[in-house]
Queue: 4 jobs
Job 1
Amino acid sequence: MQITPPFGYKEVVPVLKTQRLRLPGPGELPPFVRGSNAVPLSPTEFQPAGREFPIVFTSNDNGKSFAPVAVLGLASGENLFVNGSGWSAGVYVPAYLRRYPFCMARVAAPAQGEAKQGEEQPRRLICVEKEHLDEGGEALFEGDKPTERWAGIERLLTEYEADLERGRELCAILADYALLEPFTMQAQLPADKGGEKLNLTGMHRVSEKNLENLNAAQLKNLVRKGILARIYLHLISLANFARLLERRLAAEGPK
C-alpha cells in the first residue's frame, strides 16, 4: 500500500488503535509552516480566512486542476504570521495547520478486479506523521473505545475532508466556466526599507469580466451551490495583499 503524504508532511502511516502518539502542545505549529508562504483552504474557511489573508487559486498540474490557498507571505519561504512565540495572536489558524499531525490520505492500492495498478480508492485513510509515534505518548483508544480527545480529532478530520471535496468541485466549476485568470502581485519596498522589489507569481483569481459574461443558467448554478458567495469573499480578500506588505514592513523595521 502506497500512501502519498500531503503538502508539508514527511512520511505518514495509518492510525492504529494500539498506537501511542506525541500530540502537539497548545500553540505548537507544524514544522513546515514557518517556511510556507501559502497553505490550503477549504470553502468553509473563506469567510474567517478572508479577514486576514489574500485567498487565491493555484495549480500544480499546469491548469488541469486548481486549489484555493491562503497567502501568508510575499516571497517564497516567508510566513508573516509566525513569530518567536508561534502563530500571531488573534489571527485565524487554517484547519490544514490545526489538523496536524493527522491527515486523511489518498491511498494507491494494488489492482483488484478491473481496478488498475495504483488507482486511487474513493475512501481515505486517517493517517499521522510517522515521527509522532511515541511509545511514551498518549493513547487515543481505550481498547476499542475512542477517547474523547480522539473523537474531536476524528470529527475535525472528517468534516475538513468533506469540505475539501466541496473545494475541488468549486474549483472544477470555476475552471469549466473559464473564470480563473493568472495574476502577479508586484510591490516595491520604500527606500528606507531597502527598496526591494517583490514579485509573487503562480496565482490565479476570478475574472470579474468573465463573471459578468456568464449566462443565467451558470449564475444560477453558482448561487445554488454557494459558490458565488465564495467568489465575492475571494475577491474582497485580495485587498489583504496590502496588509501583508504592512506586516512585512513592520517586521523588517528601519534599515
Job 2
Amino acid sequence: MATTLTNDAMVANYNRIAMEARLPLERGDWTAASQLSVRAAELTIGAALGHFARGIGAARLGDTARAGVEIEELARVQADMTRRGDTDWATVVDIKRRVVTAWREFAAGDTTAALRDARAAADVEDVTEKQPVTPAELLPARELEADMLFAAGKYAEARNAYSATLAREPRRARSLYGAGRAAELAGDKEAARVSYVSFLKQMEHSDGDRAEVARATSSLSAQPR
C-alpha cells in the first residue's frame, strides 16, 4: 500500500535513511551499504534511498542477484510514485534505479552497456532539479560514472567525469580524490597535485584514518618540490 507523507514527514523519511547511508557510501564500504536496513515506510523516497544504497553496495561487491532484487524494489517505488502523479520524485528514483542497473551490468562483465547506462543516468540527473528537502544526492550519478570509468581503466575520462561532478557539487571529497588519482594514473602529475591538495584541505578536520588521505599524502610527498 502506498504511503502519503506530509512535508515534515517527508523530510524525516528522507533524512533518516540518508544519514544512515552516507557514511558507508562516502567511505566506499560496500559491504555495510549492501546490508543497510530499510527503516522507512514502504514505497517512499526513504525506502528508495535504502534500496539504492543496498543495490550499489551489492553490485560493487559483484553480487548481481542481490543488486537485481534492489533494482526491482526501486522500480516498484518508481511505479507507485508515477501512479500517484509524484513525477518529480519518480524521476529521482528512476535515476537511482538506472545507476544500480549500470553497476549490475558492470559486475556482470558487460562494460559497454554499463558505461552507456551510467552516462545516460548521469545526463538525466544533470538536468533534474534538486528536491528542496535534500542537501545533495547520496552519491552523484556522474561521480558513479567516474568510478566506473576508473574501474575500467579509462583514467582520463574518469578525471573528466569527476571534474564534472565537482562543477555541480564543489569540494566533494570523493570526487576531489578521484580526480587526483585518475590524473595520477593518466600521467598528469600537476593535475593530480592540484586535486590532492584540495582533497587534503577538505579532509584536514577528518578522523584521519582514510586510506585515500594516506595515498594522497604519499603521492604529494613523492613529487619533486
Job 3
Amino acid sequence: MTHVLVLSVVMFVYLHLWFLISVIRKNFGLVDIAWGLSYVVIVWTVFIQTQTITTASILMLVFVTLWGLRLTYYLLLRNWSKPEDYRYVNMRKNWGKHPNLNAYIKVFYFQILLASVISLPIQSVFYVAEGNAWYHMFALGFGVLLFILGFAFESISDAQLKRFKSLPENKGKIMDKGLWAYTRHPNYFGDFIIWISYFVIMFYSFDVRYAFAIIGTFIMGYLLRYVSGVPLLEKRYKDDPKYQAYAEKTPIFFPIIKK
C-alpha cells in the first residue's frame, strides 16, 4: 500500500508540473510530451521501491526508459516551440471561459490517471518472482524480441517521416516509402508491439495473480487504433485525394508485405 501511495504522490506532482508549464506557455499540446515521460517516472518510482530485483525488472526498467525518453525527445523537438496543436485549439474554443479548468480535468488529470492504469504490466513486473525454468526464459526472450521489433518499427518510421518532411521537394506529398509503404501508421503499430512486449515480459513467471495487468496493453492498443492515434490522422486527411489514393493500396495498421 505504501508503494501505491508514493507513486500517487509522485504522479500528482508530475501532473501539476506539466499543467503549470502548459498554462505558462499557453499550449495544452505539451501534454503529449509529458505522456511518454510519465511512464519513465512510473517505472523508476516503482523500481526504487522494489525489494527484489529480477532479470525481467531490469529489462523492463531499461526498455521503458529507452522507449519513453526517445518518444519524449522526439515530441519535444517537434512540439515545444510550435503553435498549439489543432486538437487542443478546438478544445479551447469549446471550453469557453474556463479552458484551464477543463484542460486540468479532461486532459492532464485524465491522461495521468490513464497512464497509471495502462502501466499495470510495467508495474507488475516488479512484484513477480524470478523465473528460472526454460519456459520462463522462453517467454522472457520472446518479450525482448517483441520489444526490439516494436522499437525498431516506431523509431525507424519516425525518422523516415522526419527526413521526408525536411525536404522542400516533398511539400504537399504523402509519405509512402520505407515502412510507410507497408502500413499507413507504422509508428503506432510499433508502439502497439512494444506494449505487447511489456505484458509478455511481465508474465514470464506465469504468476496468474498479475494476469489482470493485460488490461493496460488492451487499453493502449485500443487507444492507438481506435481513439487518439490512427483515427485522428485518418480524419485529418479524409478529404486529401493523394492520401486517399495512398490509403487504397496501403493497410491502415497491421503491415502487409506487398509482392
Job 4
Amino acid sequence: MRKIKLLLVDDEEDYVRTMAERLEMRDVGSRVALSGEQALEMIRDDAPDVMVLDLRMPGIDGMAVLERVKKSHPHVQVIILTGHGSAHEEHEARRLGAFEYLQKPADTTRLLATVRSAWKRSLEFLRESKDQFDRTMAAAAWAEAGLADEARSQLKKRDTESAASDEETVWTDAEAAGPHDAPSLKVLYVDDEEDFVRTMAERMEMRDLGGDVALSGEAALAMLEGEVPDVMVLDLRMPGLDGLEVLRRVKARYPAVAVIVMTGRGSEQDEEEAKRLGAFAYLTKPVDISQLIDAIRAAGRARRDA
C-alpha cells in the first residue's frame, strides 16, 4: 500500500516544520507550504491525498484555499488546524467540504489518526469516481450500439450508487469566490450523448483536465471559432456532422489541435481513416479512465511540442 501524500500548510514556519518532524517519526512524511499561494501552486503540480491547513495566513487565507482546493481537487481531504477559530468559521469550513476542524495545539496522536481517516476517505472518493466513470463509459458504448435498455441499466446503477455516496459525503461543490488556477490544458469534449460527455468532463476536471462540452459536430466547430483548445476528445457517431468530418475540418483549419477519437462503434476502416486525417489517438468505448487520462496528457505534450 502506498504512503499517504500529505501537505502541511501554515505560515508559522517553526510550528509547521516541527509538526512535519513529529509526523515523520510516526512514518508519515509530508511536504510543507508556508502560504496559501504556495500550497495552491504545489497542488497544481502534485495533488496530495490530505492537506492540514491553517486558517489565519497573510495573502490567500485558509478558507479561500479550502474553497479552491475542493473545487479543483475534490478528492483532497482538508483538515483545518487553527488557533484562532470560531463556531461560525467551523460551520463555514465544513460547509465548504473540510474533513475535520481541529484547534491548535493539536495532539500528535489525534492529528495522525485524523490524517489516516482522511486518507482512507480520499482513496474511497477516487475509487467511487472511477466506478461511476466506468459505468457511464459502458452506458455510452451500449447506447452507440443501439442497446438502449442496457445503457439505461448502467446509468441507473451509476445514479443509485452516486446517490448512496452523496448521503455519506461531507464536502460540497460550492463555487469559489475568486479566480481559480487555470488548467494546464484546454480540452474540448465532443459527443452527442449528453449524460455521458458531461460526466466525462466532470471526472476529468477532478484531474485538472476539465474543459468545455459540445453536443454536436456543428457546435464543436462553432466553439473553435471562439477559443481553440489544445486537445479535442471526439466521438465518431453523431447526427449531422459526424466525427470524421469534424476531424477533417479541424485538422485543415487548426492543425495543431490534438484530436483523440473515441467511439463505441468503430471499425478498422474508421480507425485507418481517422489516423490518415491526423487523429492523435483512436480509443474504443468503454475506455478505462486511466487510459483516457494518459491519452489526453500525451496529446497535450505533443501539442506543446508542436
